[in-house]
Amino acid sequence: MKARQHYYFFLTVIIVSITLLFAHEFLPDNLRKRIFQFPEIDTIGHLTSFFILTWVCHSVIKLSLTVCIPLLIFYGALTEIGQSFLGFRSGEWGDFFADVIGISLFVLAKFLYLNIFKNSSRQAKN
């Protein structure tokens, strides 16, 4: 059953990614300018990618959250420090905070899933 959930999640991520990749051709001009000219689109990408990276590390690779969280925060800091030394990239605090927020959102989602959905399914069985 768990493998099926991973399959559906990856399928959803792929469909959303492809839709966003080609959405600029089908959207009206005013909506396209609002979405794709949004200056924080990179920050949203950092948040989303670290949410997914935390999910992969915890659920697929099976790292515990106590190992996964500091490891990914360190990785996010290291990438931003590395980008600050590149001439064509810049390390930004906002991107690092988006990385940490993405990790935190996964932890919150996992907490809510375990406490709300698992408890409600247990109560329904009783």
UniProtKB/TrEMBL annotation:
It comes from Colwellia psychrerythraea. The chain crosses the membrane at residues 6-27, 47-76, 96-116. This is VanZ-like domain-containing protein. Keywords: Membrane, Transmembrane, Transmembrane helix.
